[in-house]
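Researcher: I'm comparing several assemblies side by side, and this is the next one on my list. It has 364 residues spread over two chains. Same procedure as the others: predict the full complex and return the structure.
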Amino acid sequence: MAEDLVLDTAIRDWVLIPLSVVMVLIGVLRYFVSKLMRSYQVPDAKIVKEGQVIVRARNLRSGANFIPSKAFRARRVYFSNEENGLLFVPKGQAQNAQAQMFSDPNMAMDMMKKNLSMIIPQTLTFAWVNFFFSGFVAAKIPFPLTQRFRSMLQNGIDLSTVDVSYVSSRSWYFLNLFGLRGLFSLILGEENAMDDTQRMMQMSGFGFDPTKSLSAEKDSLDIVQHEWALPKFEQRAEAVLRKLVS
Amino acid sequence: MAGHNESGKKKSSEAANDLQTFSAENLQNNMKVIYYSQTFLSIVGGVIAGILGFKGLAGFILYFLIMAISSVGLIAKAKFSVHSYFDCWNRIIFDGFFGGLMSFVLFWTFAYDIVHIF
């Protein structure tokens, strides 16, 4: 059963190419639509403040070794002091912020819009493919697969003796779905590619951000051991200058 | 490719004995350069593999060969001092390997079908 089937040129002209072109165009369209629909959200002052405090704490942690030890310790106490330190959030307040975020109508609308703009084109295109392009062999994938993939890839084709490499157009749709992500990131510039898993992770992570990361930052700040690097710098400067001169 | 690479690389760390200080922005930019060049190469490699009629394992070997060549090219562009541009070896070698795989397979299938089957 290893002979090469010869497929009609019409399939190539009217199935493969139009499907790919349509998916590329839909991706571009979705990108522009999401840009247009992005409503400007007035940032909540409290959340911005907390975010900036986290950034400051992180900078302190990364630059800890460049300042003298007394200065570092003073700054650390300022952040993680039990009573009025910036990073210390009493348990009661922490819960509030999270609940408030989810009941905020603006944020819910935003998330829903993003979700919809992702799901609707995919569903529509899939339904279109199924309706028009089912029941025939669409393409041959150049590498062999096991029999177990047959039911997944050959969905409209009812012959069981056809080689698993010959797939239906539904699998061509899925192949396009995954493979065009790279192309989108090239032509649309900078990660505007549709990456569903990434977006979902971002959305679910957003609600928890301020409260848990504050305590996480406080813990990591407490862990840092101060080791003043500056005394060694004179030797380093000497080595560099020596290399330059010689 | 050459033009793209030239404007891409930036020095991201001070010459370090023990300390590694990285400018996060430059590091990210270097990551982006790697990602773009690997994506582009995987698409082009897919089309090549399809036109030449590679089947099965040979195609995947071609993909890994192209990724290896791109890694070597990037390392050469970084003048072999990887640590002044990236924070660890894994970035430049392993990171994009499987990212470009789906695009490669898509364009490989596409070109193979257009040229050989129809």
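Model: For your comparison table: Chain B has one domain: 24-117.
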